[in-house]
Amino acid sequence: MSEQHEGEVLAVPKVRTDPGREAIKAILADPEGTVIGLDFDGTIAPIVPDPERAHVDPAAVAALSRLGALVKAVVVITGRPVRTAVRLGGFRDHDGLRQMTVLGQYGVERWDAADDRFSGQPEPPEIAEVEAALPDLLAQLGLSGARTEHKGRAIGVHTRELPDPGGAFTELLPALSELATAHGLRLEPGKYVLEIRAAGSDKGDALRDFASEVKARQIIFIGDDLGDLPAFDAVRDLRDQGTPGLLICSASDEQDALADHADLIATGPSGVAAWLTELADALDQQG
Hints:
The chain is built from nine helices and twelve strands. By secondary structure, the protein is α/β, with parallel strands linked by helices.
């Protein structure tokens, strides 16, 4: 590929690190060996008050549909139930995503577009126990207005719609941590959401396993908050083992926890969609 085309891919937004620049070169030279991994909320779908209305940015889906025919694989790794992510993503409606995989509940659930097949593990009984305990706990803290979301193997408590979302998040953190520990579960903080979930794999485990499964020669991962740090760590581990990797942070006013760890920063889902489109354009031009 010409230097001009490589520069176009680096321009929106700018790659900041030497490992990132090396990864870009490898991706452009060998797209057929590249896995594109992405988080869902805050990365390709906007963060909205009602999680059931968080549809994927149409520009991101369009870009991924183009890239799906050019790269080794596209995989979405999310804390959401896999069926919810597939529905809100509209992934079934795009021919370019026929080889896409969605890993839900941090890798415990799976959907493969090739045969439209869902698989996963049952909900542990402790989740129902936590759900039953939450109303009294929230009432004791004066936070009954917090939205709760049953996610199958997890329960999310959202503070975004409260008068002081940051203060409520801080107040809930120790109480929900204690509740999770009492039931043998773990607490996962996010953007104005605290998620109590079953122990098991994290996004790093899911990404490593998928990269090994498809024999990725390069890897991209795009995420936005603390739950994506294990996937960032997995990419760094793969780099150390000789697999080029590119880390992209989808940054926002609410959360920039990944910014210091990223090779490249995009401005929210629209910025991610723009970068994916630039990459698809560059690969089309060189093909």
